[in-house]
Amino acid sequence: IEIKDLFLNTPVRRKFLKSERSENKKIKDRLIVTSLSRPDIQLKYIQDEKIVLDLFPQTLRERIVSVFGNNIDRFLLGVELERRGIKAKGFISSPEFFKSNRSGQYFYVNGRPIELKYGSQLIRKSYDELIPYGSHPWCFLFFEIDPRYIDVNVHPTKKEIRFLDEEGFNAFFLELINKELRSKTPVTFLEMKKRLSEPVKPKSGVQISSHYSKVLSPNPIQTNSSGTMFQNIMETIYKEPPLQKGFDLENVGAGNNLSDLTETQVKSRDFIPKKHFGIIFETFILAEAEDGLYIIDQHTAHERIRYEEVLKYLKKVRGKSQPLLAPIRLDFSLQEAEDILEKKMEFEQLGLVLDDLGGGSIAVRETPPFLDPGSEREVIIDLLNRTIESKASEKELYDLMAKCVACRSAIKKGDHLSDSILGELLNRLSYCENPSRCPHGRPTLIKLTRFDLEKMFHRR
Known about the structure:
Blueprint: H1 20-37, E1 43-47, E2 50-55, H2 60-68, E3 76-83, E4 86-93, E5 98-99, E6 105-109, E7 112-114, H3 117-126, E8 136-137, E9 139-145, E10 150-151, E11 162-163, H4 166-184, H5 187-190, H6 192-197, H7 226-238, E12 273-280, E13 284-289, E14 292-297, H8 298-316, E15 322-331, H9 334-341, H10 344-349, E16 353-358, E17 361-367, H11 376-390, H12 394-409, H13 419-430, E18 445-448, H14 450-456
Parallel strand pairs: 6-9
Antiparallel strand pairs: 1-2, 3-4, 4-9, 5-8, 6-7, 10-11, 12-13, 13-14, 14-18, 15-17, 16-17
């Protein structure tokens, strides 16, 4: 297909075009949708004398991998079902592979791509207990339905359709997803909710993730000066090099109301812990302060602490990195890799050195020194995916990096903490700029005043 003089007869349309990059992306997105509907057809897309897509006749699975990168291959689960006059086949992703938006979901009815909004809701319902809140699985689903039972003239471009028996289609859709998902999903995901509801048995020790093994201990720490001991541990982790002069990131993180942190800063604290009483439900810390009783989520509290520590480091140190013994190879779609590499210089300011390997593959050669050993891959993938999806600016990248590191390295539900570490955790939280919320906006603590308690017990 060759198109020339597209706006010859409608020149007024030209001024409504967006940037060249934006329009090229729309073209590519449309070609991807088309290429998935007919994997048996060869497709080649050349843009500015550069081959963007070069797809040969393939199976559907091979076409998905060619378009979205090798990384997706091992997470694809094949689905197929025929019932009540409807045929369906395609692929869904296993619970380990998801996105923060619905851009990885493709639906086709009788070979035509459609926007199936309630289909996205149904598939999210099927994964409800298996993936984090706000996440969305990938899916590539193809339905064959008798044209007499659907209305394709709802939308001018036929993007939407209506079903004569919508309730029946919804039931079929859920059966299609659940049948394969439940049979192929690892037991750990399926039984997670059941296990969390079982009584907790006392343990003499617990294996702690390497992300924060330096901070936590499976056994109580015996010391006459718990604060000093914990301080030494934390200093080992958060030790910072001297501030590089001439580097000013005063406004970085301003979107989160974080002021510029300094070593000499003394902050008036709204939350001042007096004493704590332990942990309930393996998650919530009970603590007393002058103004009431506090219930603190140990994960979100530590996440807030880590977030501000990392953001503080990034504000002080520009581009400090350490080489990896072996580069980390990451696979993306061609468009995703292009979006990432456009910000290569910005990533280097974070201490992240990337190289283009071609074909959607990227090598990570150097990483920031504050990443916990062994966590580099998952933190970097999280950061790059969020960058693609949010189209983050240079300043926003600092905030995203701090959020990714904090989320991955924070204490998790069920991790056993000694009394001394609990005390230091609460003390550090009290010095945070915003101790009441985690970086993603979830609450870290709830306060019950004396008045609240007396009112509950009808003493007032």
